[in-house]
Specification:
About 75% of the residues lie in helices and about 0% in strands. The protein is mainly α. The model has no long low-confidence stretch (mean pLDDT about 85).
């Protein structure tokens, strides 16, 4: 247990700066978005939308007419998900590829603990930090919205979290597995970005968008205020497979 606690502390130290930056970005957005809603309504009041495509004009009107629609689209459909995707890749950069590049991998795996345990700690600490930041910033959004006088039921808004967290788990597990497989950290980062981009391709077509992990993560897999249980379950299953693959890579890797 002492060795595991040492590994956990090491990962917290590795991620402390990135974690602080992620916390500042997420909390700043959670504090900024609810109060700005009223200003947006006044800015677009009376604006001529006749030159805008019909579906875009209708979407804009629905967002401006309902704070709930605004909150869901701006948090899950945009800001939270974009930040999570960026920091999922950045947090995973503290993985095994960087240990190999710095020459610390051999020392790390010389500890009296299984390689799979080392991989579990490295992956778990990073994901755990992002999990806490995601839940905490979402709760902050609700608090700020209520302080600003908006009607935003906590249960209704939090229903978007399962799909968001499941999508983050999938992409984090994939990025960590690529870090365990690759010999060079920047190559692993590039591959992670490529995987995320490819996962969004099905969302470009109406017939296949439901199969896109990004589509689900952006809160589009179910009606706002409804938990996307099916999407979350599939994303978590994919995350479990990616994690198992990463453990296998870590167990067989030479340093």
């Amino acid at each position: 247990m002492k060795v595991i606690r040492t590994l956990v502390r090491k990962e917290f130290v590795e991620l402390r700066i990135l974690g602080l930056i992620a916390a500042v970005v997420l909390c700043a957005q959670a504090a900024f978005l609810p109060p700005v809603y009223g200003h947006l309504g006044r800015a677009f009041d009376g604006m001529d939308l006749s030159g805008m495509p019909g579906h875009l004009a209708e979407a804009l009107r629905s967002v401006l007419m309902s704070f709930r629609a605004y909150a869901w689209s701006q948090w899950y459909g945009k800001n939270l998900t974009q930040v999570l995707l960026v920091f999922t890749v950045l947090f995973s950069s503290a993985g095994l590829a960087r240990e190999a590049a710095r020459g610390t991998g051999e020392f790390l795996f010389s500890r009296p603990v299984a390689r799979e345990t080392v991989y579990a700690v490295k992956t778990g600490v990073g994901f755990g930090l992002l999990f806490l930041l995601t839940v905490g910033s979402t709760l902050l959004f609700i608090v700020v919205a209520r302080l600003a006088g908006h009607d935003l039921p906590a249960g209704w808004f939090l229903s978007g979290l399962p799909a968001s967290l499941a999508g983050m788990a999938l992409f984090y597990a994939l990025a960590a597995a690529l870090q365990a497989r690759a010999c060079e950290p920047f190559r692993a980062l590039g591959l992670s970005v490529g995987v995320i981009a490819l996962s969004g391709l099905p969302a470009l077509f109406e017939a296949t968008r439901a199969y896109s992990p990004l589509y689900r993560m952006f809160g589009s897999g179910a009606a706002p205020g409804t938990v996307d249980w099916w999407g979350a379950a599939v994303l978590l299953a994919g995350a479990a497979l990616a994690y198992a693959l990463g453990r296998r890579f870590a167990a067989g890797r030479e340093f």
